[in-house]
């Protein structure tokens, strides 16, 4: 199906922001202020856009205009050179208004910095220059639950073939991360490729209940050729993985890094739902007239005040936990990016347990808050035009990405036996 006949939002609606945001922020505080500005724009019609479920070409243009796609990139190529802790908070801010776009920003920040974790020094520099100088948005066709894409070697190139039931943001991306296993080996290879090519065929079948603007449907990969020099972490002469990139604990940091991406957009969505509900309660919710202690305003109702206070306390605690884990991820990257082989398995395991704790708490609290807000807004808040349901639908959809029960088990083994988990595609 051609992208021309797929319903999409119009990038022109946000054209004014290209000039307004022509200069990039230069501090952590101003980057987060920029993220809040983006959220304010998205919040204006978020329920309507969720209902229409169009391919988010305009929203990606808005992210490009804002500069947020460059937030983590080196300054020498035009990036913001911020820490992951700032990136996580930016994801959270955008997700408060629109969970789908917060998720797309999070996945982009992960995929656009994948070379930092598994690439060679030359690949890191080349990848950053490519992405930042062109202000590219990066999607990913990396779904470990499917059979890996098959990779064959053909002279100076590798060739990807296969399919994925899910990819994120690919339809609206400039570059796509592919991952597969090299034929005859157990070696996994990541590579960034141009999205717009005949060998990448999107199914346009993302019709799920939540995160409707993430374009997370299926994709077929057919004879996509990639130069060996672009196989991240592999030596193009020997065609083998480099021990200083792929065969060390540092290379497995990709997984806790993205798991914390998930938790931060869950948290943003949950905070956004409480903010949205508070505005609705203040403006629309009526007091209950049959309680025996009748109030003139819903905002004086004891049970409403109690629920809001309890939700607020749990979200504030969850935010503190997420920030601590973000600081720890940032510290590992800061300490070991120049000497990746020095990161120990125990240090990697420790940060993975912090991230797992955040995942458990953001899932539990997020689902509780996004469903519970209906208790303090009233029956009329269930109308589709209100859009309060999208917050719950968004967290419910993505929190099934990998069962949180396994995170609880993992944390149980750590608490009881002090065992760190073996790194996997989900840990």
TrEMBL record:
Q: What is this protein called?
A: Thermophilic desulfurizing enzyme family protein
Keyword Flavoprotein applies = yes
Domain Acyl-CoA dehydrogenase/oxidase N-terminal residue range list:
33-127
- One GO BP annotation of this record: L-leucine catabolic process
Q: Where is the Acyl-CoA dehydrogenase C-terminal domain?
A: 260-401
User: What are the record keywords, sorted?
Assistant: Flavoprotein, Oxidoreductase
Q: Which PANTHER family match?
A: ACYL-COA DEHYDROGENASE (PTHR43884), ISOVALERYL-COA DEHYDROGENASE, MITOCHONDRIAL-RELATED (PTHR43884:SF12)
Q: Which residues cross the membrane?
A: none
The GO molecular function terms of this record are: 3-methylbutanoyl-CoA dehydrogenase activity; flavin adenine dinucleotide binding
């Amino acid at each position: 199906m051609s992208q021309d006949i797929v319903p999409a939002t119009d990038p022109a609606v946000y054209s004014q922001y290209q000039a307004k945001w022509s200069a990039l922020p230069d501090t952590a505080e101003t980057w987060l202020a920029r993220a809040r500005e983006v959220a304010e724009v998205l919040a204006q019609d978020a329920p309507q856009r969720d209902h229409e479920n169009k391919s988010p070409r305009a929203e990606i243009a808005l992210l490009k205009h804002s500069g947020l796609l460059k937030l983590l990139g080196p300054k020498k190529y035009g990036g913001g050179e911020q820490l992951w802790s700032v990136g996580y908070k930016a994801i959270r801010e955008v997700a408060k208004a629109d969970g789908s776009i917060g998720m797309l920003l999070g996945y982009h920040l992960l995929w656009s910095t994948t070379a930092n974790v598994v690439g060679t020094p030359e690949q890191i520099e080349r990848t950053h220059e490519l992405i930042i100088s062109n202000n590219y948005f990066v999607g990913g066709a990396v779904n470990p639950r499917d059979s890996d894409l098959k990779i064959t070697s053909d002279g100076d190139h590798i060739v990807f073939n296969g399919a994925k039931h899910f990819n994120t943001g690919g339809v609206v991306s400039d570059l796509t991360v592919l991952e597969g296993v090299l034929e005859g080996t157990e070696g996994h290879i990541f590579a960034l490729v141009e999205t717009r090519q005949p060998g990448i065929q999107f199914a346009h079948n993302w019709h799920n209940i939540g995160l409707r603007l993430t374009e997370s449907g299926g994709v077929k990969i057919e004879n996509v050729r990639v130069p060996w020099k672009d196989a991240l972490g592999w030596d193009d002469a020997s065609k083998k993985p480099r021990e200083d990139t792929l065969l060390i604990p540092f290379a497995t940091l990709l997984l806790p890094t993205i798991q914390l991406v998930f938790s931060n957009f869950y948290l943003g969505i949950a905070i956004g739902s409480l903010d949205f509900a508070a505005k609705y309660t203040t403006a629309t919710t009526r007091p209950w007239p049959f309680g025996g202690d009748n109030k003139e305003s819903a905002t004086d109702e004891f049970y409403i005040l109690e629920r809001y206070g309890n939700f607020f306390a749990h979200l504030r605690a969850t935010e503190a936990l997420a920030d601590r884990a973000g600081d720890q991820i940032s510290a590992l990257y800061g300490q070991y990016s120049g000497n990746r082989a020095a990161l120990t398995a125990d240090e990697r395991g420790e940060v993975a347990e912090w991230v797992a704790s955040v995942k458990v708490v953001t899932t539990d609290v997020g689902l509780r808050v996004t469903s519970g807000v209906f208790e303090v807004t009233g029956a009329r808040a269930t109308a589709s035009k209100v859009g309060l349901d999208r917050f719950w639908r968004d967290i419910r959809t993505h929190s099934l990405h990998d069962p949180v029960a396994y995170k609880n088990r993992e944390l149980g083994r750590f608490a009881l036996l002090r065992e760190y988990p073996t790194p996997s595609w989900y840990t």
